[in-house]
Design goal:
Strand content: 15-25%
Order of helices and strands: EEEEHEHEEEEEEHEHHHEE
CATH topology of the largest domain: Metallo-beta-lactamase, Chain A
Distance between the termini: 26 Å
Number of domains: 2
CATH architecture of the largest domain: 4-Layer Sandwich
Helix content: 25-40%
CATH class of the largest domain: Alpha Beta
Shape: globular
Length: about 300
């Protein structure tokens, strides 16, 4: 089952665009290999609003966000996760509005119980005012959200289900333009598989990722993501069967049609898969799971 990616996307930076009744989006000018056209900040409601993922700490972006909200009351700031393109602008937004921030926890919070300390790759300054858990409900004036805990891309990743429109704000968990990169130790492939399975139990009619276009064929899309990850594991198994036990050599084979600039993050995804496969007894390793370890069946 091939993933039907959609890379058709139009936006105007620094302008709040109404994309649905009661939903606006402000695009930050931070395009890149992992952000597509940039971070899309969603504003939910009218007059008394929630902001989902305020975005990166860029002066022009923060100014546009505060200017666009100057005649409204921000009651909630919802954070899907703490990568630097999602949460840093929460600090100036909170300072300007006194709104509380809602998130699962600080960067790496989902790994703390396992004794894993995460020190890189995130907004280490962020700590939510309100820690939320799976199944919690957040309510405002004319809108409400279910909290859907989806670790995998990060250990503190939370999606938000807008009850009034059956729309799930998916952060980086599921995107329409690309797959998500899973980078250990905070990223966890086993958790990612479980979080994808969780979405199949829901009845969301539309996904709105933080990057790129919305996704209407939600179940089909998630099922294709699951099959894609299983295909990657089959490819790894074939590499190991042929005696290719080095991650970087696997990447050269598995991602030969992918831009070489993306081979480094691809290696991290292969590492995440191998971590999962070692834990489940489908691969062996000559020491701790790492990029430089040697793997075999």
């Amino acid at each position: 089952m091939a993933i039907k990616f959609n890379q058709t996307f139009e936006c105007e930076y620094g302008v709040m665009e109404e994309i649905a009744p009661g939903v606006r989006r402000l695009m930050a000018r931070n395009p890149g290999a992992f952000t597509f056209y940039g971070t899309g900040v969603f504003i939910i409601g009218e007059g008394d609003v929630a902001v989902i993922d305020p975005g990166p700490l860029l002066d022009a972006h923060v100014d546009a966000l505060l200017t666009g909200l100057k005649n409204e009351s921000v009651s909630h700031i919802l954070i899907t996760h703490t990568h630097n393109d999602h949460s840093p602008a929460a600090a100036p937004l909170k300072a300007a509005t006194s709104a509380k921030t809602y998130a699962f926890g600080p960067h790496g919070a989902g790994k703390e119980a396992e004794g894993v300390k995460v020190e890189e790759g995130g907004d280490m300054d962020f700590a939510p005012d309100v820690e939320i858990r799976h199944g919690d409900v957040i309510e405002g004036k004319g809108w409400s959200f279910d909290c859907v805990y989806t670790p995998g891309h990060t250990s503190n990743h939370m999606c938000f289900g807008h009850r009034e429109s059956a729309t799930l704000y998916t952060g980086d968990h599921v995107m329409g333009w690309s797959t998500s990169v899973i980078v250990p130790p905070d990223g966890d492939m086993a958790a990612y598989f479980d979080s994808l399975d969780l979405l199949l139990t829901r009845d969301d009619m539309l996904y709105r990722p933080t990057h790129g276009p919305g996704i209407e064929n939600t179940r089909e899309h998630v099922s294709a993501f699951i099959e894609h990850r299983k295909t990657r594991e089959r490819q790894i198994t074939e590499c190991l069967r042929r005696g290719t036990g080095d991650i970087r050599a696997m990447v050269q084979e598995m991602y030969k049609d992918v831009d070489p600039r993306l081979h480094a993050p691809a290696a991290m995804s292969v590492l995440a898969h191998l971590e999962h496969m070692v834990k489940t007894g489908r691969a062996k390793v000559d020491g701790p799971v790492s990029l430089d370890a040697h793997y075999w069946l």
